Amino acid sequence: MKQSEMLIPTLRENPADAEIKSHQLLVxxxxxxxxxxxxxxxxxxxxxVLKKVEEIVREEMDKAGAHExxxxxxxxxxxxxxxxxxxxxxxxxxRLNDRHQREFALGATHEEVITSLIRDDINTxxxxxxxLYQIQTKFRDEKRPRFxxxxxxEFMMKDAYSFHDSYESLDETYERIYNAYSxxxxxxxxxFRAVIADSGAMGGKDTHEFMVLSEVGEDTIxxxxxxxxxxxxxxxxxxxxxxxxxxxxxxxxxxxxPDQKTMAEVAEFLNHPLEKGLKSLMFKVDDRLVxxxxxxxxxxxxxxLKNLYQASVVELASEEETRKVMGAGFGSLGPIHVxxxxxxxxxxxxxxxxxxxxxxxxxxxxxLNVNPGRDFEVTQYADLRFIQxxxxxxxxxxxxxxxxGIEVGHVFKLGTVYSESMKASFLDQNGKSNPMIMGCYGIxxxxxxxxxxxxYHDENGITWxxxxxxxxxxxxxxxxxxxxxxxxxxxxxETLKKEGVDVLYDDRKERAGVKFADSDLIGIPLRITVGxxxxxxxxxxxxxxxxxxxxxHVSELLTRVN
Length: 562
Ligand code: ATP
Ligand code: MG
Ligand code: MG
Ligand code: MG
What we know:
Bound molecules: adenosine-5'-triphosphate, magnesium ion
Shape: elongated
Helix content: 25-40%
Strand content: 25-35%
Domain Aminoacyl-transfer RNA synthetases class-II family profile: 33-465
Radius of gyration: 27 Å
Distance between the termini: 18 Å
InterPro entries: aa-tRNA-synt_IIb, aa-tRNA-synth_II, aa-tRNA-synth_II/BPL/LPL, Anticodon-bd, Anticodon-bd_dom_sf, Pro-tRNA-ligase_IIa, Pro-tRNA-synth_IIa_bac-type, Pro-tRNA-Synthase_IIa_type1
Catalytic activity: tRNA(Pro) + L-proline + ATP = L-prolyl-tRNA(Pro) + AMP + diphosphate
Family: Belongs to the class-II aminoacyl-tRNA synthetase family. ProS type 1 subfamily.
Number of helices: 15
Enzyme class: ligase
Mean pLDDT: 79
Number of strands: 29
C-alpha cells in the first residue's frame, strides 16, 4: 500500500492525557484516535493489527471446538431483568430507551442473550456440550476510563459461552479453552501468566485470569518463585476465617471514627493479633452489613500518610442475590457503586467485601465513617490476611514474589446461575429436566493489542512482532525527486506485491528524517531503504527490533525478505 494514499497521521508530541507507552505510541504512530473519553476509532493501521490479533484468537478458538456467531450489542432490558443484573450490574451498564420508551442496554457482556437463545433452541443432553463465541464490541461505562485501549468504555472482546449436561463436561471444556488461551497469548508473543482469579469466595480452580506482565498493569500478581502458583492478590486472601465474638465489639466505636489510626492501633483496639500481611478486617454487623477496615496509604489534606486504616460499611446481598452477582461472569465484580466522594482506599475495601463476602451494593449502600456499635450491632468478625512478598507460597513450594499484570483474558465456571434464573434446562438421559451448566470465557482483544505495545516498543516507537505487525515490510524511498531512487523503489514495491509480501511503501514527498522517524514509530518489522546507492542497485535492510542493518543488492532482496 502506498503511504501517500493512506491515513497514517503521525504526531511528534504525546497527547496530553496519555500516561502510558501503548496509549502514547498508538496515537502518535497513527493507529488510533480518541473520539470521546474511553472511546476510540481504529485507523487503517490499527484495524489491520486488530484483525491479526482477532485471527489468532479465531484460529485457536475454532481449534478448541468453539463455533463463531454474532449477537446484538443492543439488548432488551427484559433479559437483564430475568437474570437480575438490570439491578445489580450498576452504572457500568449503558442503558437507553427506544422511541417507544422501551428500555435497552448496550451489551457489556452476553450471558443473558446467549442463555435466552439456547433455552429456546436446545432442550436435550444430546445437543450438549455446546461452545459458542463471538468477537464484538462491548460497552462498559467505566468509572475511570484510561490508558487508551487498556480501559475503554467501548472495546473489542472475544466472549465465549459453553453449555453442558455435567460438571465433568464443563471441566473438560474449561481446560480446553484455558489451553487455547495459553496458545493465543504465546502465539502473540506476549509474556503472560495464568493466575488464580478468586481463590477466596469461589474456590481457586473455578476461575483464572490471563495476565500480561507489565508495570502499567492495574492488578498485582502473587507468584511463587519455585512453583506454578500464581494468583491475583486482590482476590486471593490466604486465610479467611470467621471468629465468633460475644462482645458486640464496643471498642469498634472508638476505631471507626473519622480519625486516622494505624492498623496496629486498630488491631490493638480489637484485641486482635496483628500478623504479617494483615490488610483488612471484616466485621459482620448483621446479615446484610459488613464493616471493612482497610489498611492502606492515604492522602489526608494533601499529606501522604502511610499504613492508615479506613472504615466503611458494605451491604451484602442475600445468598440468592449473591450467587447471581458472583456467577455473573464478565463484569461480575464490576457493579460496585461507590459514591464519587469515596476515595480509592474505600473503593478497595468495598471490593474486598464484594469478593470475599459476595456482596452486592447499590447507590447509597456504602457509607464512610459509620459508627458500628452505635449505628449497628456488631456480631461477628473475620480477618483476611493477604499474601505479601516474601511469604511462603500457599502450595508449600517457594516464596511469594509480586508482579504487575494486565488482565487480557478471563475464564470462569458459571455453573447454573444463569440457567436457573433464566430457566434454560435440558432433558437428561432419564427424561429428567435439569438446568444447563455453563462456563464463560473472555479476551479483551483491543486491550491485548495495547498490551502488545507495552511489551514491544523502544524509545523510538513500536517494535511489532511479525505475526501481528500491520505490514511485513516498510519500503522507504528516501528522495522521490531522484529518478533512480523512485524507479528502484517502485519496481521493488511491484515485485514484493506480486510475491504476496505485505508492504507499506513510503512514497511521500517528505524529508528522509521524517520518513525514518515515522517508520520507527510505526514499527513494521523489516525496513527497506532505497537511498544513495540506488543507482548501483543497493538498498539497506534493517530489522526494526534488533536494529540489525545490512546492505543488500536488489537481486538478493526477495530471499532476504521472505
Ligand atoms: P477489569 O478487571 O480490567 O475491569 P473485568 O474483569 O471487568 O476487567 P471481564 O468481565 O473479565 O473484565 O471481561 C473479559 C475481558 O475483557 C477482560 O479480561 C479484559 O481483557 C477485557 N476488558 C474488560 N473491561 C475492559 C475495558 N474497559 N476495556 C478494555 N478491555 C476490557
Ligand atoms: Mg471491570
Ligand atoms: Mg477483572
Ligand atoms: Mg475479569
